[in-house]
């Protein structure tokens, strides 16, 4: 059961709240490029940033981030 | 990204001028056993001084325009955790480049300086610094595009 990456659905939750990437970035104190990179799954956020994002997007952190890879799909949670 | 490019270009210009100034000083200055001495820095010394003032002003303007740029941290300034990670990766890359260069110079400089005096030493030291600045800049741009 290899853990390959941390997957997320930040993009979906952000769009549900009608926020732009720039607005979300400003709300959690990072650059827009960080949000872009995060949504593409290129970078893994720190626990602090993940918690901040969950708070701003009004969602449980487990629904926002989960372990990626074939054996760790979100549907398992 | 802009802050790193500006900072590294400024640093490279500074090292080029500093190397030229020191080469001029070595060629045109003397210090005798009787204590007589004369140190000349030439036109490069003036250019270096002017550049340090201009670069200082540019850094102050940059810090006002971009809050993520900290003049005390220079090229290590980071807007957030992603830029911090990029900076760390670029530093690792720069470390490898610099250590390799210095190991080569450790062997080459003594051989060259026997016949050519201090100039090869200054050239090698200045060159190593310039290549290190370029390595950090290229590393930063590479990891920024990758992440």
Describe how the helices and strands are arranged.
The complex is a heterodimer of chains A (77) and B (147).
Chain A: E1 6-8, H1 10-16, H2 21-28, H3 32-39, H4 47-56, H5 61-64, E2 65-67
Antiparallel strand pairs in A: 1-2
Chain B: H1 2-28, E1 30-31, E2 37-38, H2 42-65, H3 81-116, H4 119-146
Antiparallel strand pairs in B: 1-2
* Overall average residue pLDDT of chain B: 91
Individual helix count of chain B:
4
Largest β sheet strand count, sense and barrel closure of chain B: 2 strands, antiparallel
User: How widely separated are the two ends of chain B?
Assistant: 13 Å
Low-confidence stretches of chain B: none
What does this protein look like?
The complex is a heterodimer of chains A (77) and B (147). Helix content of chain A is 48%, strand content 8%. Chain A is mainly alpha-helical. Chain A has a domain at 9-58: lambda repressor-like DNA-binding domains (434 Repressor (Amino-terminal Domain), Orthogonal Bundle), CATH 1.10.260.40. The mean pLDDT of chain A is 87. Chain B is mainly alpha-helical. Helix content of chain B is 78%, strand content 3%. Chain B contains four helices and two strands, in the order αββααα. Chain B has helices spanning 2-28, 42-65, 81-116, 119-146, and strands at residues 30-31, 37-38. The longest helix of chain B has 36 residues, at 81-116. The A-B interface holds A 29-31, 33-34, 37, 42-43, 45-46, 49 and B 68, 79-83, 85, 144, 146-147.
